[in-house]
Design brief:
Chain lengths: 872, 276
């Protein structure tokens, strides 16, 4: 029976359900998009290209794993390593001894700088990407039966073989000489690490378009040049004819023992694309966190629209109650109406959701956050989840909205249908007060925490406050409109203004459903966008005040070789030159792992303040230093916020994983302030160099002697003879923006835009519905003598009140959340750029004005007498 | 005009064995709380026999609508008892009251009687539908024919005039063959001719179907269709009139209204307060 009633209502007046329909559609689109991204993250895989013909690879585990205890269970959390973890190259001999193995070779890559030769007539400093590899890997990675060399012979000491395509493109052939610079130092290297090699042969192409060209060296030469002699990225294994992949893998496992990983199938792609692991993690967390927030927002919004639509039909439900509908029947009717919409809305939202996910993934790929081979994983699960979530939300919303009309006695219901109740229910008020208190408590707790803990609590704070706003909506709306309406009521805005003030106060409940989405979008977008802007601002400030160097040497290619800093220090007029090697490290924060930026500085740490002012707070940098080798990572300096997060001070040991997975426990010798912009962990370059993939400096910072001519020094530095060298001043340092930070900024902006758009649509829809419902009221006003212009003015003032209330409440929530979080992350208060805040506020106001003006115009077209008579 | 058909049944008093259709015992109703409470009903005692047509009249603020709502079980009195067909309804749960509303009570409002999204016939059958009973379409058609809207079964309320809507409402009120039909100003929004038709229908329901009707009205002509008129003033019974005619009803009303004006609202002219 309720089905029939529900169907009849929806069919009869579809426009009043339009709002709930649109809300459900958007919700479905957002859930589909985030679910698809999540699924893509979980199932992303690539097919190996470089190692397509190599059935089995041996590599080290490329993630850090920790075991987390939850009571009696223990689960493992892992995080992909920022740099490459390596295996012992000697394993290749052990593997080759197995019966099923035809050949096994250690393979590794390192970047090369090509010095311009006479053959290169363009004279540009552009570097063709060139990768060095050991020659014996060439044979093991080509398809069976293909000869490695197409011309010439295998390279020996002082020789190199190039990919035939690359050689052709550079007009090089067997017998030519080229000068190459590698991260490690060969025996015959010049002072800047460059050495001349004779091209001994040409190698068949590996068939990987878009990858850098390979330069093949003799194995031991390659080992030294890579900077990690004796270690390899992977061991490529070829089987004898007739040996299957599974059998081969078993034999290899036997040979290498339990430590390293034996990879077959698609798992081999993780060796070629080490950032696959990070990309998967990012997609998963993006899909998960965004999906979670978006679903909650969607549920809030759907509840609001359904409740509003039901509230507007109060008289109908009162009549039904009087004729003999039980409360249960009323509840089921409203719930069924909502549920009738859900499947269609859900189904329609799936396609836009997929389009959004596709666009998002494409953007992430083009920004380099996700390897380009990863494609969107489209499956039925996210879509089913979206439709299911819509159904549940509609059902829940329907039942909640029906609580009041169903419970009342018919006479009450008939009275109330005309005037809204002044006080909201007791339960609702109590719950709202609890949520508010909870938010305040969490905010104070977050204020006392530092770093990550503060950031994690931030989400809880926002949620509590938003819940409080949703529950206490009518009360807050009434309060706000009373206060904000004071100037209007005093008459300075004329009759329209005072009418607006009175109207909003009397109908606060109905307006609360328009205010709540505005509060939500302002709070969310405000928190996301301004957290990001604060971090960027503080970083930029720190970079500006931290770099006191006069010149910054950079590279247009993969980086600067290790000897450049020493050479630069000897240029006349230079006081100090420090090479900066960038990497990342992983630390444990409670139950999770997090990564931090690491800075390795060369030379005497006592000279560091001449080029880099880190704002040392405690301890001294003089104690930082050491020679190469893992044992030498004995000292470290930390950013103040990081030290507080980890709970260490000067003199304590701090456990860290370096970029290649090595666990170290250096002692903290100093803490400094400007870590956010410059680097949160400071090590000596010599200690760090063994643990990065390629130890090219990213910059060299040079400070001039007092009285030296800047221009002359810069010119002299430019003549150092390093390929792809760029010489800039301090500004050049900041330009190399943190890649990761820019991606997370962009992701935040997209999330804010999507959530904001959704809430904006919800708010606009609610405002329109409330205005259209006032046909009778507008008619009465006009009969009483209000001109069209005054009515329009009244509607405009009401819209302004709604927008202002929403902005103020949402802004207050965002501010209360941001202050402890920014203090924990950056140590300062939030930075709100007007260029972002103002357009946001203006957009909200324009939205509110537009959503009331358009239906208002429609209302004013009707003849007052008809409208006042209530002919619907 | 068909004001009051000469029917033996309406002349008789009911047998003592048959309980009255509607009975109120010391019913009080307070609105609001504390000092600002308003006494809408101040202790009403009355019994209405089966098969009677009673009109309830009084100046505005006399508690007519509250009386009707309490008698019909739409509202709960603050104290006292209401009995329908000898059964006490004041202590019933909301669910039981709802069941009563479906089967033993019919209600006609002044306006907004029909669900706009259903057709006329569906509106008439709504009480049966809500009760989960089989919908008696034949009966609905018959009732619609009786109220003069036999061909309008498939129309929507929006397509009918006010009078037609009221007639549909009466048909719906009668479809469950209730013991009592309560009507709150059923002709208030109608023109004279339509009002006469509607009142005639109500009279017919009493005479030929044996229904009991309690009608609140402010119109003396409408009241004259009833068997007797009850007058309410300030929440208490202020007299009855058997076999009313419009003139005597109007005279009583003027007396009541000016008394109220002189007593409570000093200053307002008594003679001008005729319309309740």
């Amino acid at each position: 029976m309720t089905n029939g009633l529900a169907r009849a209502s929806v069919r009869f007046r579809p426009a009043s359900f339009a709002g709930s329909f649109v809300a459900l559609l958007f919700a479905s689109a957002i859930v589909t998009a985030s679910g698809t991204l999540l699924q893509t993250g979980l199932t992303a895989h690539l097919a190996p290209v470089r190692y397509a013909s190599t059935p089995v690879l041996v590599a080290a585990d490329q993630s850090v794993q920790i075991s987390v205890e939850h009571g009696k269970d223990a689960s493992t959390t892992s995080m992909p390593l920022p740099e490459t973890a390596r295996v012992d190259a000697a394993l290749a001999q052990r593997i080759a001894a197995e019966p099923g193995v035809a050949g096994a070779a250690a393979d590794f890559t390192f970047p090369l700088l090509l010095s311009p030769t006479a053959a290169r007539t363009d004279g540009s400093s552009a570097q063709p990407p060139l990768t060095g590899r050991p020659f014996s890997a060439a044979a093991e990675t080509l398809p069976a039966g293909t000869a490695a060399l197409t011309a010439g012979s295998a390279p020996g000491p002082g020789e190199v073989a190039l990919d035939s395509d690359a050689a052709q493109a550079a007009h090089l052939t067997v017998g030519d000489r080229i000068t190459l610079t590698a991260p490690g130092t060969p025996e015959s290297a010049g002072v800047t690490g460059a050495a001349s090699y004779r091209i001994s042969g040409l190698v068949a192409d590996q068939g990987a378009p878009g990858e850098a060209a390979n330069a093949w060296f003799a194995d031991d030469v390659a080992g030294r040049l890579s900077g990690h002699p004796g270690l390899a990225d992977t061991i490529a294994v070829q089987p004898r004819s007739g040996v299957g992949t599974a059998e081969l893998a078993r034999q290899v496992r036997q040979a290498v023992g339990p430590g390293p990983q034996v990879l077959t199938g698609d798992a081999r792609a993780t060796v070629e694309q080490p950032q696959l692991g990070e990309a998967r993690q990012m997609l998963t967390s993006l899909g998960g966190s965004f999906g979670g927030i978006a679903t909650m927002t969607a549920v809030f919004v759907v509840m609001g629209t359904v409740a509003l639509a039901a509230g507007q039909r109060g008289r109908e439900f009162a009549l039904l109650r009087a004729i003999g509908a039980t409360p249960r029947q009323i509840r089921r009717t409203i719930a069924t109406e909502a549920m009738l919409l859900a499947p269609t809305a859900g189904a329609l939202g799936v396609l836009p959701g997929l389009a959004l996910a596709r666009w998002w993934l494409g953007q992430l790929v083009s920004r380099g956050a996700v390897p380009s081979g990863v494609s969107l994983s489209v499956g039925p699960l996210p879509m089913l989840a979206a439709v299911g979530a819509g159904l549940l939300a509609a059902l829940g919303a329907g039942y909640l909205a029906a609580r009041r009309p169903a419970k009342l006695r018919p006479s009450q219901a008939l009275d109330e249908a005309a005037v809204e109740r002044a006080r909201p229910g007791v339960v609702r008020t109590v719950l709202g007060a609890v949520a508010l208190a909870g938010g305040v408590v969490l905010a104070t707790v977050a204020a006392r925490q530092a770093g990550d803990a503060a950031a994690n609590t931030a989400l809880g704070v926002v949620m509590c406050f938003l819940l409080a706003v949703a529950l206490l909506g009518p009360l807050l709306a009434r309060l706000a409109t009373t206060v904000l309406g004071l100037p209007l009521r005093s008459g300075c805005a004329g009759a329209a203004g005072s009418l607006a003030a009175d109207n909003t106060r009397a109908n606060a409940r109905r307006l609360a459903s328009a205010i709540t989405p505005i509060v939500m979008v302002t709070a969310f977008c405000g928190t996301l966008l301004f957290l990001q802007s604060t971090i960027s601002h503080v970083s930029a400030q720190q970079v500006r005040s931290g770099i006191v160097a006069d010149q910054v040497l950079g590279s247009a290619g993969p980086g600067l070789p290790a000897g450049v800093a020493g050479r630069a220090a000897q240029v006349p007029g230079v006081d100090a030159a420090v090479g900066v090697l960038r990497s990342s490290a992983v630390y444990r924060s409670g139950d999770t792992l997090a990564s931090v930026s690491v800075l390795g500085v060369s030379g005497d740490p006592a000279q560091l303040p001449r080029v880099l002012d880190l704002g040392v707070r405690s301890g001294s940098l003089d104690a930082l230093g050491g020679t190469g080798g893992a044992a030498a990572v004995r000292t470290v300096a930390l950013d103040v916020q990081l030290a507080e997060s980890l709970g260490v001070k000067v003199g304590d040991p701090v456990p860290l994983w370096l970029g290649d997975g090595t666990q170290v426990r250096p002692t903290v010798v100093a803490t400094y302030q400007r870590g956010l912009g410059l680097g949160q962990v400071l090590l000596s370059r010599a200690a760090l160099a063994d643990h990065v993939a390629a130890s090219f400096d990213s910059q060299v910072l040079v400070s001039d002697a007092p009285g030296a001519d800047r221009g002359a020094v810069a010119a002299a530095l430019g003549r150092l003879g390093v390929p792809a060298l760029t010489v800039t001043d301090a500004e050049g340092f900041g330009v190399q923006a943190d890649h990761e930070q820019s991606i997370s900024n962009w992701a935040n902006t997209v999330m804010a835009a999507v959530l904001g758009g959704f809430a904006a649509v919800a708010s606009a829809n609610t405002l329109m519905m409330t205005v259209l419902d006032r046909r009778r009221e507008v008619g009465l006003l006009r009969l009483a003598g209000t001109t069209r212009r005054q009515v329009r003015g009244m509607l405009r003032w009401e819209a302004l009140l709604v927008a202002t209330t929403g902005l103020l409440l949402g802004g207050a929530i965002a501010w209360t959340t941001l202050v402890p979080v920014t203090r924990g992350i950056t140590g300062s208060s939030p930075y709100i750029p007007t260029a972002v805040a103002l357009p946001l506020a203006v957009a909200v106001v324009v939205l509110a004005l537009g959503s009331t003006a358009l239906p208002g115009r429609a209302l004013l077209r009707a003849r007052p007498v008809e409208a006042a008579a209530g002919k619907q | 005009m068909g004001r009051r058909a000469e029917h033996p049944r309406s002349e008789q008093w009911p047998q003592q064995a048959e309980p009255p259709a509607v009975e109120l015992r010391a019913v009080r109703r307070l609105h609001g709380r504390g000092d600002s409470a308003v006494q809408a009903l101040r202790g009403i005692d009355l019994a209405l026999p089966r098969g009677s047509f009673t009109a309830v009249m009084g100046p505005s603020g006399s508690g007519k609508s509250t009386f009707l709502q309490c008698a019909a079980g739409l509202d709960r009195p603050s104290s006292g008892e209401v009995l329908l067909g000898g059964e006490e309804i004041t202590r019933l749960s909301e669910n039981r009251l709802t069941e009563l509303r479906r089967s033993r009570i019919g209600f006609v409002f002044q306006s907004f009687n029909l669900l706009p999204s259903l057709t006329v016939q569906q509106n008439v059958l709504l009480p049966q539908r809500l009760a989960g009973q089989r919908q008696d379409r034949r009966l609905a058609k018959e009732l619609l024919a009786r109220v003069g809207l036999g061909e309008h079964g498939a129309r929507r309320p929006g397509q009918l005039s006010g009078g037609q809507q009221q007639r549909v409402a009466i048909a719906r009120a009668l479809v469950t063959q209730p013991e009592v039909v309560f009507a709150d100003e059923p002709t208030g929004a109608l023109d004279t001719r339509t009002a006469q038709e509607v009142l005639g229908l109500l009279r017919q329901a009493v005479d030929s179907m044996g229904a009991t009707i309690v009608m609140v009205t402010h119109d003396p002509v409408a009241a004259s269709h009833a068997d007797r008129v009850l007058f309410l003033a300030d929440g208490a019974l202020a007299g009855t009139l058997e076999r009313p005619d419009p003139q005597s009803v109007a005279d009583r009303m003027i007396r009541l209204t000016s008394a109220a004006a002189a007593a409570g609202h000093g200053g307002a002219g008594g003679a001008g307060a005729v319309a309740a």
